[in-house]
Write a structure and sequence with these properties.
Layout: H1 19-37, E1 41-42, E2 48-50, H2 51-58, H3 63-67, E3 70-73, E4 79-82, H4 87-96, E5 105-114, E6 126-135, H5 140-156, E7 163-169, H6 173-189, H7 196-204, H8 218-222, H9 233-249, E8 254-255, E9 267-275, E10 283-289, H10 293-296, E11 304-310, H11 311-317, E12 326-332, H12 335-350, E13 355-357, H13 363-372, E14 375-381, H14 383-388, E15 390-395, E16 401-405, H15 409-415
Parallel strand pairs: 1-5, 7-8, 12-13, 12-14
Antiparallel strand pairs: 2-4, 3-4, 5-6, 6-11, 7-9, 9-10, 10-11, 14-15, 15-16
The protein binds one RNA strand through α3, β6, β10, β11 and α11.
Length: about 425
RNA sequence: GCGAUCGUAGCUCAGCUGGUUAGAGCACUGGUUUGUGGUACCAGGGGUCGUGGGUUCAAGUCCCAUCGGUCGCCCCA
């Protein structure tokens, strides 16, 4: 007997249904609601882009670009890449569509992103992000608005409690260069004490040694020069304006002077909302300012700030999944009722009620089905009811049943 | 990419030191009740024990490989 091999789900991808889907949807719905309150426009961008869009903006030496991107040649021989994040694609869209005429723009989007990584809890190869960006605003008020939006979202999702906002500044380009040079000098002086990982970081991304978890690195990282002494007056003022704005908006934050970002395009403000409830995947929402990004993609110098959050991670932090709600289930009995039920069902739905029909098995099975669907009411419809022009409406929570005229059904159920 | 750990029905698991046709609860289907659910009782379907090799008279149980999940590192949301 030949057996057909069923194809497997690809590693690191997910099929989401039921409770997981409800949690997922609650995050997306919450984001969509809050984003409107802050007057962010929804934008749709492609799932894949020319590889250069990501390689040039994120930095060739970053892990994301050098070993985590889904990159392939299309049939025309062009190198394309499944988006590993949103920011680069949005920046590219800003340039190609000439959106500078609309600047400053407040944009929001959500959808799948792809990273070829080893899967873990809260980490997938196709995962989903919500994303918010403000492009064309160099003012610290933009940073504040974005952080306030994030803060309100976490609050409305009911997960603000275990989550803290860690904030830092990376300074402007001048600051960052000076600080980076000082760090390289400091770490070079302690080469022989650093972990292997950090020796590698020293070549590719020395800033990341600062937040190393390796105990061997900690003393050296802790004694490294602080960015504060390198901040230009402008950079210092900028950061002060951001923190002052957050205080005014009532957003709690803590300074983490060792917080850096892995992607090359960040300047000034860098932040992470972190939790200890997700094991190693503690970062739940993160972002920062990327004033140099648009220019590096060939656009006019344009300021930008933004953040992204992993929908799966937020969903895992949610307390109770929203219950599925069905207002009524129609239970027809007999051939005449089966036909009549179609009309009643359509009427209920047109009246805005979530309604379904139990059409299999004997009455007991149908009632059980109504119950399993989580319906508030069963609308019972048999020959007797059709003769009288009234359906039996049973409240499935209390067990009470009352006759209701067919043409009054929608109104009665809407009121109940 | 590195290290550790796990992998028996849709789900949660039992299966002792290898030994007849692999079990339970929940879920599902049918029935007790061909017009009344959420309780109860009865019956049933569903597993090549992740996959592939090996050791053995005999492997769910031991060995190797591989795939997948989980945890940590790296990185990141």
């Amino acid at each position: 007997m030949a057996r057909i091999d069923t194809p497997n789900r690809i590693r690191g991808t997910q099929d989401i249904l039921g409770e997981d889907e409800r949690r997922f949807a609650r995050v997306v719905d919450g984001f969509d609601r809050v984003r409107r309150l802050y007057c962010f426009d929804r934008v749709e961008i492609p799932v894949f882009e020319a590889t250069a869009v990501f390689a040039r903006s994120l930095g060739e030496t970053t892990d994301v670009v050098s070993k985590e991107m889904y990159t392939f040649e299309d049939r025309g021989g062009d190198s394309v890449t499944l988006r590993p994040e949103f920011t680069a694609g949005i920046a590219r869209a800003f340039i190609t569509n000439g959106w500078q005429q609309h600047a400053p723009m407040k944009l929001a989007t959500h959808g799948p992103v792809f990273r070829y990584e080893r899967p873990q809890k809260g980490r997938y190869r196709q995962f989903h992000q919500i994303d918010a960006e403000i492009i064309g605003a160099a003012e610290p008020a933009a940073d504040v608005e974005l952080l306030t939006l994030a803060d309100q979202l976490l609050d409305e999702l009911g997960i603000a409690d275990g989550v803290t906002l860690q904030l830092n500044t990376l300074g402007d380009a001048e600051t960052r260069e000076a600080w980076r040079a000082a760090l390289v000098e400091h770490f070079n002086a302690h080469r022989d004490e650093l972990s292997e990982d950090s020796l590698d970081r020293l070549e590719r991304n020395p800033l990341r040694i600062l937040d190393s978890k390796d105990p061997r690195d900690r003393p050296i990282a802790d004694s490294a020069p602080d960015i504060d002494q390198f901040l230009t007056p402008e950079a210092s003022d900028f950061f002060a304006a951001v923190t002052g704005g957050l205080d005014a908006a009532g957003v709690a934050w803590t300074r983490n002077s060792r917080l850096v970002r892995g992607l090359d395009y960040y300047r000034h403000t860098a932040f992470e909302f972190v939790t200890d409830r997700l094991g190693a995947q503690g970062t739940v929402l993160a972002g920062g300012r990327y004033d140099g990004l648009i220019e590096s993609l060939g656009g006019n110098p344009t300021a930008g700030v933004g953040w992204a959050a992993g929908i799966e991670r937020l969903a895992m932090l949610l307390d109770e999944p929203a219950a599925k709600s069905v207002d009524a289930v129609v239970v027809p009995l007999g051939d005449a009722a089966a036909t009549r039920a179609q009309g009643i069902l359509a009427e209920l739905r047109r009246a805005g009620l979530a309604a379904d029909m139990a059409f299999k098995g004997n009455m007991k099975k149908r009632m059980a089905k109504a119950d399993a669907l989580g319906a508030r009411y069963a609308v019972i419809l048999g020959d007797d009811e059709i003769a009288k022009g009234e359906a039996g409406v049973k409240n499935l929570a209390t067990g009470e049943q009352q006759p209701v005229a067919f043409d009054a059904l929608a109104k009665a159920l809407n009121a109940a």
